[in-house]
Amino acid sequence: MITLLADGHEEKIDGLVVPHGVPILGWERKPHGWCRGDACIPSFRAVAAETEDGVDLVRFAELLGRQAVADLDEGVVVVGEPAAPALGRAPEFGPLAGLRGTKVALVFWASWCGCRYDLPAWEALHRELGGYGFSVVSVSLDRDPQDAREWLADVTHPAVIDADGRIAELYNVINVPTVVWIDEEGRIARPQDTMTATDTFRSMNGLSSERATAALRRWVIDGDAGTALRELRAPTGDERLARLHGRLAAWLFRDDRRAAGERHLARAAELAPHDLAIRRGLMPLNGVDPFGEAYFDLRQELEDSGVAIYRPLPDWHEEAPR
Asked: Domain Thioredoxin, which positions (predicted)?
């Protein structure tokens, strides 16, 4: 048996070749092809994944624009999210579907980041600007939900814990704090941006929360997003693949298979060395202090390589250190 991790679910399958007639990832075989709702993959394309014995799960995922990583030694396969069909629109998840008609600041944070201390300030902005048709939605990148919950005890804004990393994958988030602005029609008003709501760690990140929150108020009240960019930054193929190895590593760490987890974590770091959401975010599951020496060694590694730790858009931020 193999464990399949896909679409936020975990299930057991007999192998990577799925018998004919069995639905795959929510798709069903019809006479004219594989269909899910009104969407269909025609038979002439589907044949690339079909064999005499069944349908190759990994090849089928690729037909859907989804990457997959299998570790047969550990008996697990993970399937990633579909590539974004339109980078100018916000991928929907959880509370976003109910916030159409409202401007949203999508705030990515984690308990392993000092940005956890910004949550009360984000909550204050949520309450202050709510009357203008605005909402904060916070997304914790903690792999252990319990680590995030104590910081969410007093918030009233919609809050989600992205324990399997799927939302970070959808929004191509590589570090926290990262904020995305979404307009009333679900369009990207400002893409992934390093943004703070307080100056608690300004000496480290060089960012002005005063400028950032003033710009946010202008956008909410006056409609000025302050940037010509209206699309999410697209991930590379290696970045997408790294997230799958990171998801596998997290699952293996939780199952107390540390050696295998470290192997997939190392592969993720090789593919996307700059992705701190993976490399730092998995430290707690691996028994490593995310505020300790390992994190500062990682910072030094990236700085020596010329990789920016914080990646703000340049128009209303001060220059961030590299």
From this structure: 84-218
